[in-house]
Design brief:
The protein is globular and about 75 Å long. It has a two-stranded antiparallel ribbon. It has helices spanning 36-56, 67-115, 131-151, 156-161, 171-219, 224-263, and strands spanning 24-28, 32-35. The chain is mainly alpha-helical and 268 residues long. The longest helix has 49 residues, at 67-115. Helix 3 packs antiparallel against helix 5 (171-219), helix 3 (131-151) runs parallel beside helix 6 (224-263) and helix 5 runs antiparallel to helix 6 (224-263). The chain is 69% helix and 3% strand. It has one domain.
């Protein structure tokens, strides 16, 4: 979405938080409102499903060098990245394989939803509205609690709230801190970290490219020289946003694996 200039006065209006609350386009099944960002999320989901379907159909032991083989090799490379660098690196081979499906889903969902923020004509990340980061944080934390209870049904909450080696009177202070930090702050920070990065990135990109349009089209003349600078900054921040999109997907999946690792640690 591009910030608009006033029709008569040529006044510049920067990006607004309202861009994350677009108008409803239609109601799905007559009751579920669907807006532009929802359509982008649907598109990103369809692309993920399509790419993995194409990359895993008629698989070979050795992918080969033809188009089908390269397609399979690319998908395997992505899956191996999550398996080796996130799942097995933190959880070991056994637990890594157990939780690989959820970690893979989180990584690629966040990645593809983030990338829509820099794709022309889409221009906004599917993770830039709170519902998606919050849902992923809930899934991540439900997995953490499930892993802990599965590992130690009787002692998981006890060990989480009453760490060993602490004198009993100190638990009056420690236990509330552990309750808030472990069961409240962690899912909140998971949500806000992803949401704020995508929102700020979008606002910056809109600011630079809208300023370019304003200097070049609305003002014209020697103001066009400033458009060159704002356009250059826009392209630089687009590359930076690409890095952030990948990094945030990695961090979200990595933190999920870290929480699972804490849940299945021997002291639980």
């Amino acid at each position: 979405m591009i910030a608009k200039t006033a029709e008569d006065g040529g006044e510049f209006h920067g990006p607004s938080i309202n861009e994350f609350f677009p108008e409803t386009l239609f109601n799905l099944f007559g009751v579920i409102p669907v807006n532009r960002i929802h359509l982008i999320q649907f598109l990103a989901t369809a692309i993920i499903v399509l790419l993995f379907w194409l990359g895993t159909r008629n698989m070979r032991v050795v992918p080969g060098t033809d188009f089908r083989g390269r397609r399979q090799g690319l998908v395997e490379m992505g899956l191996d990245f999550v398996r080796v660098n996130i799942a097995e690196d933190l959880l070991g081979k056994k637990d890594g394989q157990r939780f690989l499906p959820i970690l893979t889903t989180i990584f690629f969902m966040v990645l593809f939803f983030n990338l829509t923020g820099i794709i022309p004509f889409l221009n906004i990340a599917g993770t830039s509205i709170v519902a998606v980061p919050l849902l992923l944080a809930v899934v991540s934390y439900a997995t953490f609690i499930y892993a802990g209870i599965k590992k130690s049904p009787k002692n998981f909450f006890k060990n989480s709230l009453f760490p060993s080696g602490v004198p009993w009177p100190i638990y009056i202070i420690v236990t509330p801190i552990e309750l808030i930090s472990t069961f409240v702050i962690r899912p909140v920070t998971l949500t806000l970290r992803l949401l704020m990065n995508m929102m700020v990135g979008h606002l910056l990109l809109v600011l630079f490219f809208a300023a370019t349009q304003f200097f070049l089209v609305t003002l014209g003349g020697w103001w066009s020289a400033l458009a060159v600078g704002s356009l250059a900054f826009g392209f630089v921040f687009t590359l930076f946003e690409l890095l952030v999109a990948v990094l945030q997907a990695y961090v979200f999946a990595l933190l999920t694996a870290v929480y699972i690792q804490l849940a299945v640690a021997e002291e639980h």
